[in-house]
Amino acid sequence: MSNLVKWDPFAELSSLQKQFFGDDFLSSFKGVNIPTTDVYTKNNQMIVEAHLPNFEQKDVNIQVDSNALIVSAERHEKEEDKGKKYVVRESSSSFYRRVALPERANTDKIEAHLDDGVLKVSVPLTPLPEPKKIEVRSKKK
Fold first, then answer.
1. Which CATH number fits the domain that encloses residue 42?
2. pLDDT tens per residue, range 30-89
3. How is 92-117 classified by DSSP, letter by letter?
4. Vertex 31: Cα angle to 57 and 78 (nearest 5)
5. 38 assigned to some structural domain
6. Total domain count for the chain?
7. Residue 27 is assigned to a structural domain of this protein
8. What are the C-alpha distances in Å from 23 to residues 14, 20, 92?
9. How far apart are CA 61 and CA 55, in angstroms?
10. pTM to 2 decimals?
């Protein structure tokens, strides 16, 4: 009874993947940097930090629309070199994030700074009201 072979249901799927996409079908995504975005609250402010290396202030656009903060950035590079075989070499990078704003966000006082490739957007939040204390009494008959 040593002729039994354990069946692997994913073996066929794996061989199809290799057939259509090659041995390493994720290789085209290796080395691609996806900018990170951190959203947190600190000292009655909501902070949105986006890591945007190689972007400049002119590349970044920040808007408030439908109670959301929209951060986008787009960068284009164009190089012309007559000494090389190509005439024009172009590359571009883009970034887009939409972050929902809380109801207590003060959109009139939003500030943004881009330093060393890190965009920091500060959204002031109005303080939460103190909870109303309800006195508990006993019902006397």
1. 2.60.40.790
2. 545 567 899 999 999 999 999 998 889 999 999 999 999 999 999 877 666 666 665 566
3. EEEEEEEEEPPTTB-GGG-EEEEETT
4. 45
5. yes
6. 1
7. no
8. 10, 9, 29
9. 11
10. 0.63
